[in-house]
Automatic annotation (TrEMBL):
GO terms for cellular component: membrane. Residues 22-251 form the AB hydrolase-1 domain. This is 3-oxoadipate enol-lactonase. PANTHER family: HYDROLASE, PUTATIVE (AFU_ORTHOLOGUE AFUA_2G14860)-RELATED, MONOACYLGLYCEROL LIPASE.
Amino acid sequence: MPQIRLNDCQFHYTDQGEGPPLLLLHGLGSSEQDWEYQIPALTAHYRVLCLDMRGHGGTDKSGKGYSIALFAKDCLAFIEAMGLQKPHIVGLSMGGMIAFQLATDAPDVPASLTIINSAPEVIPRRPAEYWMAGKRLFFAHILPMPTIAKGLARLLFPKPEQQQHRDTFIERWCANDRKSYLASLRAIVGWGVSNQLDRISCPVLVVSADRDYTPVELKREYVSRMGDARLEVIEDSRHATPVDQPEAFNEVLLGFLAQVDSNRAIPTTEPAEAGLSTH
């Protein structure tokens, strides 16, 4: 298990494949295992790196001082330490929030962003939103981890034929450090960079499941406020799109990345001859 020390924390990461660098950022309560259905497809074209956020997976779990800004700072330190030049960054749920934060803090770093079932803020603004945020925090703090895992598994994978996905999710979720999970959840609620989207200068792909927690229209709205951004909707999918619709998701992601790489390969300067006098 490769390890690297960044910002006074010991991180677990994976590094596979060859080609342009691509950094995958997992969701809340997960790890690099989020991407098991993407790694084979991506490593055929890219150097694929996965970083377990602090408090998650094989990374240290202090459960103290967590914030989305700190997670993004850790990612930037990782990118620098690994010598990654203009990596593509792909983030699922909380990982998408970290990607948004990173791209607004350091707009010159990413070659592209792919945001999956996420948003540029989790700030309650209406009474119903305050109620939902408070309820989520309350039950997360009082319910045992196995109870939370079973409830989430049913939401993410409700079909009878998805039993294996439910079982795998519950097993992995119950391995979470409770203190670190709660600290990460608190880091999400109230976070936002929605007023800084104009700082993002790279191409952006937003992927939304048609049955995500938040409606497609919410993603459509914030996509409309970014420059080079587009929305792709994956049908018959819920919040864990890379798991429940891996083939459709991989096709959309690889198509986007190939287009970005192709555009980057086009020379942006005119040939020297163009500057010669014709007299």
